[in-house]
Every structure is written in structure tokens, then in C-alpha cells.
């Protein structure tokens, strides 16, 4: 009996749940940091003399994870392409989870001084390392188990982890805001989301330890197609795919972190919203994000991943032109329209993204290649997006934040025109 025949089959429900639960946990961990970087860390982990400087320093630690993510993509991608998707996904989840729980245990600036932001940055690096290895493996777990004609549909399940994780993270901060005063929240309440992630990690580990290796990777083992250094092969033999994939994901990252981190910071500091009000608006708008992901995946399976991404990127560019008019409406309904429309477009770009990136690389280097492209796009499109947008809005006005988004969309559009449509190489 061959190894492929001996391997237990993965049921569709188990595969899809395993890919979804992992990215939900990872993005929950990632987003609670993003929210705390705006609301909590500037007050507790940095000198309080200048609130603006403290906020920028906090956003710098937020950016740090995006520079760690390609490192995680290279490290976990190497083992994912050498050892297997399953074991690597478990290791990535543990790395992310332990880093998040550690943040909830850190002493603050008033207790240990400059060591507090240093430890915070170290934990944030660990978060980025884990997420750098998580996303690509989760997408491959889904797409490499997909039946013919349903690759984009399967590939959107790990993408759904983003809105679900965001919904949970925003929801828990909103609940804490409603149930405790500022004194208790800043004294200890902010730690609850970070410590609570330990429960989610245990659930994710239990699910992932029960899945079998993907059929595509098992075939690569049987055919002796594994390479010694996957990253070297990606850089030497697939540089065009890596560059095109990176820029194909650029606008997606810029859009999302403008709609979440920048919007929260600007809304609560410049537009007069309270923390509770704006979190509630974001919580309602994330529903649009979740709804459009499966719609985009269905369209991508029927009409092609490339066309789906091109159309959604054009929508991003138009939204950038309307950015100022929508975000400066001055009322809650206008802000909800702005957030809902932006996150709906985000779902349209994000739904097919994992599938189209995975299809750019052969099985033997797919984990490394897709992860690197996705996470390099994170550096270019997300790591500095909140800081750049804050500077642009403060210096030139909100319209220039929209122009920044439209410019990112133009670069993504050019990259997508270079991408070939088709089934992944084997």
C-alpha cells in the first residue's frame, strides 16, 4: 500500500473548520493588538509626556509584526514545504498564541520603564512570526484538499478567519468598555483579551492535530519532488511570481488597515467619537466584510480568480477617490456607510486572494512562495499604512489618504494584469 493510500482521508468539514479556526485565532490575536495599539499601549507602555508621540511609538510596534511576517513565512514555509503542512501549522499557531498570552502578562512602563516597550516589541515580533507561517499553510490546507471547480470556495474559508477574528476582537473590547470604567480597564481589563486567546489556541491545536496531510503534498513526497531549500528555489526560479503576488495583495492590505487601525485612531481623536461609539460602528461594518468574501469566491470559481481581483481592485481605486467625502460626513450613519462600503470592497479583494497566490507556485515551494508574497505585501501595504495615513491626513487632509489608497490600487492592478489564470502547477 502506498503512503498516499495509507493516509487517512480528510473530510471536507474537518478541513474547512481546521483552516477557518486557525486563521480566526491568528487574526483575533493580531487584531486585539491593533486595537490596543490605538487605545491602550500609548498610555501604558510609553512615556505620557506627548500623547501624539506615544501613539506613533505604539503604532511603530504595531508595524514591527509586518517585518517579522516574511521571516515567519521563510522559516515556517521551509518546514511546510519540507516536512508538511500539518506539523508546520501547529507550530505557527503555538508561536502566535504564546506571544499573545505573554503580552497580557507584561508589566507596564510605570513599573519597569523602557524595558516595557522593549518586551512589548519582542512579543509583537513573535506574533508576526507566527502569522507569517499561519496564513499560507491554512490556505494550502484548504485549496490542496479542494475538489475540481471549488478551489476558490475552499480557499475563502481561511480568509473568513479575518472578519470573524476582527468581530471577536472588537466585540470583546466593546464588552469590556461597557462593563467596566476606564480606571479598571486600563489597570487590568485590557489584559483579558490577550489571556483569553489561550482558550482559542487550545481549540485550534485540538482541531489541527486531528487532520491528515494534504493530498497534493503527499503526492509531492511520493514523487520525490521536495526541494532542499524552498526559499532559494522561489527566489531563483519564481521571482516574477513572487513580485507579482506581492503587489497583487498590496491594495488589500492598505485598504484593510486604513479601515480598521487608521479609522479607529482618526475617528476617536479627530472626529469626536468615543471609543465605544467607534468600536460599535466597526463591529457593525465588519458584517459586510464577511458577507462579500464568499460572494467573491463564488464569482472567482465561475469567472476566474484574476477577473474577480481586477474588478475588486477597480472598486478600491474608486473608493479612494470618495474617501474624504465619505469619512468626513460628521454623523454616525455616514461613518457606518463609509466603514461598511470599505470593508465590503475589502471582502471582494480578500476572498479570492489566497487562492490566486497559491496558484502562482508549484507544490514543492507553494507554502514558501505564497506565504512570502502575502507577507511582503504586508510590509509594503500594512506595516506603515496607519502611520502614513495619519501623517497625510494631518498634513494635507483626508483626501490624500484616499489618493494613497487609489495609488496602491493602481499598483495592484498592474500586477494582476501580469498574473496568469490557471490551475496550480504540480
From TrEMBL:
Give the record's membrane topology: Multi-pass membrane protein
For this protein, the parts annotated as crossing the membrane are 55-77, 89-109, 115-141, 153-176, 188-209, 241-266, 278-300, 307-327, 333-351, 372-394, 400-419
Record keywords: Cell inner membrane, Cell membrane, Membrane, Transmembrane, Transmembrane helix, Transport
Localization per Swiss-Prot or TrEMBL: Cell inner membrane
Q: Name one Pfam family in it.
A: Sugar_tr
Domain Major facilitator superfamily (MFS) profile residues, every copy = 15-424
**Membrane listed as a keyword:** yes
Write down what this protein is called.
Answer: MHS family MFS transporter
Recorded source organism is: Lysobacter gummosus
Amino acid at each position: 500500500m502506498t503512503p498516499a493510500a495509507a493516509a487517512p482521508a480528510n473530510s471536507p468539514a474537518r478541513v474547512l473548520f481546521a483552516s477557518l479556526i486557525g486563521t480566526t485565532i491568528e487574526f483575533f490575536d493580531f487584531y486585539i493588538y491593533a486595537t490596543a495599539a490605538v487605545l491602550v499601549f500609548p498610555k501604558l507602555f510609553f512615556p505620557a509626556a506627548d500623547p501624539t508621540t506615544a501613539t506613533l511609538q505604539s503604532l511603530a510596534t504595531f508595524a514591527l509584526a509586518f517585518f517579522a511576517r516574511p521571516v515567519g513565512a521563510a522559516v515556517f514555509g521551509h518546514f511546510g514545504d519540507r516536512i508538511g503542512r500539518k506539523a508546520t501549522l501547529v507550530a505557527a499557531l503555538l508561536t502566535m498564541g504564546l506571544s499573545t498570552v505573554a503580552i497580557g502578562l507584561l508589566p507596564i512602563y510605570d513599573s519597569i520603564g523602557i524595558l516595557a516597550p522593549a518586551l512589548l516589541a519582542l512579543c509583537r515580533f513573535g506574533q508576526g512570526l507566527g502569522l507569517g507561517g499561519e496564513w499560507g499553510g491554512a490556505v494550502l490546507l484548504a485549496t490542496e484538499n479542494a475538489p475540481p471547480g471549488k478551489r476558490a470556495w475552499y480557499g475563502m474559508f481561511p480568509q473568513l478567519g479575518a472578519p470573524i477574528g476582527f468581530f471577536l476582537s472588537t466585540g470583546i473590547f466593546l464588552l469590556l468598555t461597557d462593563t467596566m470604567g476606564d480606571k479598571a480597564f486600563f489597570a487590568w481589563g485590557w489584559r483579558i483579551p490577550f489571556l483569553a486567546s489561550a482558550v482559542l489556541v487550545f481549540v485550534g491545536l485540538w482541531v489541527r492535530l486531528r487532520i491528515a496531510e494534504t493530498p497534493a503534498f503527499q503526492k509531492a513526497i511520493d514523487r520525490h519532488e521536495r526541494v532542499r531549500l524552498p526559499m532559494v528555489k522561489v527566489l531563483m526560479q519564481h521571482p516574477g511570481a513572487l513580485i507579482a503576488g506581492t503587489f497583487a495583495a498590496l491594495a488589500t492590505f492598505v485598504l484593510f488597515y486604513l479601515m480598521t487601525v487608521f479609522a479607529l485612531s482618526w475617528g476617536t481623536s479627530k472626529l469626536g467619537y468615543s471609543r465605544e461609539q467607534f468600536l460599535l460602528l466597526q463591529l457593525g461594518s465588519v458584517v459586510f466584510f464577511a458577507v462579500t468574501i464568499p460572494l467573491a469566491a463564488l464569482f472567482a470559481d465561475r469567472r476566474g480568480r484574476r477577473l474577480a481581483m481586477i474588478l475588486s481592485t477597480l472598486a478600491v481605486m474608486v473608493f479612494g477617490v470618495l474617501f474624504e467625502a465619505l469619512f468626513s460626513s460628521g454623523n454616525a450613519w455616514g461613518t457606518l456607510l463609509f466603514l461598511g462600503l470599505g470593508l465590503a470592497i475589502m471582502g471582494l479583494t480578500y476572498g479570492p486572494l489566497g487562492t490566486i497566490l497559491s496558484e502562482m507556485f508549484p507544490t514543492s515551494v507553494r507554502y514558501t512562495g505564497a506565504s512570502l508574497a502575502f507577507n511582503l505585501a504586508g510590509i509594503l501595504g500594512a506595516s506603515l499604512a496607519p502611520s502614513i495615513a495619519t501623517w497625510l491626513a494631518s498634513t494635507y487632509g483626508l483626501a490624500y489618504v484616499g489618493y494613497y489608497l487609489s495609488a496602491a490600487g493602481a499598483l495592484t492592478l498592474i500586477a494582476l494584469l501580469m498574473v496568469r489564470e490557471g490551475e496550480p502547477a504540480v
